[in-house]
Design brief:
The complex is a heterodimer of chains A (about 325) and B (about 425). Chain A has about 325 residues and is of the alpha/beta class. Chain A contains 14 helices and 7 strands. The longest helix of chain A has 24 residues. The two termini of chain B are about 20 Å apart. Classes of the chains: A alpha/beta (about 325), B mainly alpha (about 425).
């Protein structure tokens, strides 16, 4: 047997067969990954969340009743309980928060979807944690652009980032890592299918995070935004020209707040131009401690979730 | 703006080259003037795009004035195509260049596998290949060889360099202080990150070129096997070393005019070689340290003393390792932090919660990398003896698939910034 294996692996093959077999080993997974995405099988958590939120928006039973759309990153998704928020404000509310990795562009595109699909919308309530300001336009955000948003209503039209994202989307599409994520998350661990359960208002993200790891990850200092954000702000301001936009900082973790003074100052300076269009419900950063994080499925404890929902509802009601 | 820049630079250099060639025989003075103009143009462009803000910053500090920074984006590949074209102009003047078509010249400058991060190819190695008819036919031997080395390069970049980048970036950029063991691990991580990143790119460039039946020069020859600092520079970024030797060190006097001239030439060559990597004092100091090491080694060679094999290798490796700290640090504070950590010999622990918090796995991996780099043949040596056997097919397919599965986020090659 050993001899046969040895004979087989030391056997010479033609360079043509060698090349073609190797090429197929590399290209087949790429095309399989692309097929998954093209057949609308979510292949990463950002995509799961963005598709879920978009589907939720399209499937609303009474879109005319919705007056407030909450937009932002996971700080909005996790910190605001939409039913409680609607009770407190007395206004129909939908939470369309995405994830920070989708970036500001993704959040703006989601706001455009909300404006398009909700006829009586009165408020776009942006809750964005400072951690999101350093993120670029992600390929998943590019998908939000392609999914049912007419060109005329695309707030990001003309931005250079869109062209970059297009290339990023193609790279992302053909990345075999998509298959790996699909396999690990959906096939091998079926209990994780709940991440796109229709019952959940916001979706579970991320693996099990222990407090030890949390204290490591969430003390990493923030970086100030890399790009000049003024072209993006112009599009944002246009979006808010005929609707009331409210902005509040999302909570960040204690360690990040302590280690990121410079970046936070820079973010504040960068977003000051938005003051002319936005109402700043809260212009100060706030944080949560590690002891408040709670279970891993929702990132935060129910008690904290209720408190933060009240906090954001009061900010809106006060103004 | 940047496409016109490279097209303009290429066209002008071609015109200068042809003019020098025509004058080189009988009108040497005119040829020299054209060459000097060409060199000034190339170095002027490189200087403007790469060093203007560095110059202004230092002028501000020296004179206490406040010139504002100019918003200049460094054009991709400018450091590489400038050097290639300088070599072409000098060789035209030295009558080493025959008549070339503009098409072949353009392909030599812009041939995509090597354009953005080298190897810094020489026209003598490239242009003759473009005219050879047999290279325009599909050659499965070359495609197989190209896939072989391309995949090894991809693995080096995606699996080794990108994983080590996490530790190096944390240590250099994010950590506020480091213990001794952390500093050693961070420094070693960067030592291997830069090697596998750049060598991975070079392998991929060589592989991609082979798909088109073009053979690029080898850029690395197991540099961490070097037994002394000169040996290291004969193995690391070989094409840059050759360029600096032929177009800077030898014209400055080389080793034929006495020790004083030789040492001056070495020092200038390394200072400029350091500056070529980036507009920062850290790169200049890195170059200076290597220059001084070469000078010290030259003096050492004149004695009859010789170090034992292992001591010679370890001294070279440790020196290279330490100088990478200066090279990688974004500023002096970052470098000081690592050096301070290396001085903390009483603090041998690794703190919990840091990215290095798996010391045995990381330590073992780094040790294995030292052994691999010292003992195993490099990718070019493997390529030379490659036979398309099932063993290699299975091995390369595994490397490729592991790498493909790991490709996720965009991760730039380190040498793109130079």
């Amino acid at each position: 047997m050993k001899q046969r294996i040895h004979k087989l692996i030391t056997k010479t093959i033609s360079p043509q067969s060698f090349s073609l077999i190797l090429l197929s080993c590399f290209l087949v997974p790429c095309f399989m990954a692309a097929s998954l995405v093209l057949f609308h099988v979510p292949t990463n958590k950002n995509q799961v969340i963005s598709w879920r939120q978009l589907d939720k928006l399209k499937a609303l039973e009474h879109p005319k009743d919705i007056q407030i759309a909450i937009l932002g990153d996971s700080s909005a998704g996790n910190a605001i309980d939409v039913q409680y928020f609607a009770e407190l404000t007395g206004k129909g509310t939908v939470n369309l928060a995405l994830t920070g990795s989708i970036g500001l562009h993704g959040i703006i595109l989601m706001a455009a979807h909300a404006k398009k699909d909700l006829p009586n919308l009165g408020y776009l309530y942006f809750v964005i944690a400072p951690t999101t300001w350093e993120k670029d336009l992600s390929p998943e955000a590019y998908f939000l652009l392609k999914k049912g948003l007419p060109k005329s209503q695309n707030p990001l039209r003309g931005l250079q980032e869109i062209q970059d994202a297009q290339k990023g989307y193609l790279n992302w599409l053909f990345t075999p890592k998509r298959l790996q994520w699909y396999w690990n998350t959906i096939k091998k661990e079926p209990h994780k299918r709940g991440i796109w359960s229709n019952k959940a208002d916001y979706l579970v993200q991320g693996p099990q995070l222990t407090y030890k790891k949390a204290s490591n990850v969430w003390t990493t200092p923030l970086h100030a935004p890399k790009e000049d954000l003024s072209p993006l702000f112009e599009t944002w301001e246009k979006l808010c020209s005929d609707i009331k936009c409210v902005f509040a900082h999302g909570p960040i973790y204690e360690g990040v707040l302590q280690s990121s003074e410079q970046a936070l100052e820079q973010i504040q300076t960068d977003i000051n131009p938005l003051l002319s269009t936005f109402y700043f419900a809260e212009n100060e950063y706030w944080f949560v401690g590690y002891d408040q994080l709670g279970d891993t499925r929702n990132h935060i404890k129910l008690e904290l979730k209720n408190n933060s929902t009240r906090h954001y509802a009061e900010l809106l009601l006060e103004n | 703006m940047y496409i016109p820049l490279i097209v303009g630079s290429m066209t002008l250099n071609y015109i200068f080259g042809q003019a020098i060639r025509l004058c080189a025989q009988e009108r040497r003075r005119a040829a020299k003037m054209i060459m000097v103009s060409g060199l000034t143009l190339n170095l002027g462009l490189l200087g403007y795009f790469k060093y203007t803000n560095f110059f202004l910053e230092n002028l501000n500090k020296a004179l206490g004035i406040s010139f504002e920074h100019i918003n200049i984006i460094l054009p991709l590949a400018i450091s590489f195509f400038t050097f290639q074209q300088i070599a072409y102009l000098v060789d035209c003047y030295q009558r080493k260049v025959g008549r070339e078509t503009f098409l072949n010249y353009s392909l030599f400058v812009t041939f995509f596998p090597q354009l953005i991060a080298g190897p810094i190819v020489h026209h003598r190695e490239m242009i003759p290949q473009f005219s050879e008819k047999f290279r325009s036919k599909v050659n499965w031997d070359n495609i197989a060889a190209g896939l072989f080395i391309f995949t090894i390069g991809l693995f080096k970049k995606v699996i080794i360099a990108d994983n080590l980048a996490e530790f190096a970036s944390w240590g250099f950029d994010d950590a506020t202080f480091l213990t001794f063991t952390e500093s050693v691990m961070v420094t070693l991580s960067y030592t291997f990150q830069i090697y596998f990143d750049f060598c991975g790119y070079s392998d991929m460039a060589i592989g991609a070129a082979l798909f088109f039946n073009i053979k690029l020069p080898s850029n690395f020859n197991s540099p961490y096997k070097a037994m002394n600092i000169r040996d290291f520079w004969q193995r690391w970024h070989i094409t840059l070393s050759h360029f600096l030797r032929d177009y800077l060190y030898i014209p400055l006097g080389g080793n034929k005019n006495g020790l004083a001239i030789q040492f001056m030439a070495v020092l200038i060559t390394f200072l400029l070689g350091g500056l070529w990597h980036g507009a920062s004092w850290t790169f200049i100091v890195w170059g200076m340290l290597h220059g001084l090491a070469i000078i010290s080694f030259t003096l050492w060679e004149k004695t009859s003393l010789r170090l034992p094999y292992f001591v010679a290798w370890a001294t070279t490796f440790v020196f290279i390792n330490i100088t990478w700290i200066v090279f990688r640090a974004s500023d002096w504070d970052a470098a000081k932090k690592i050096f301070k950590g290396l001085g903390n010999v009483t603090e041998l622990h690794i703190r919990e919660g840091t990215p290095l918090d798996a010391p045995y796995i990381l330590g073992f991996s780094l040790l294995m990398l030292v052994v691999f780099c010292k003992k195993l043949p490099n990718s070019n040596e493997l390529l030379e003896t490659l036979k398309t056997k099932w063993f290699w097919l299975i091995f390369i397919a595994m490397l490729g698939m592991i790498s493909f599965w790991k490709i996720g986020d965009y991760s730039e090659f380190l040498y793109f910034q130079f």
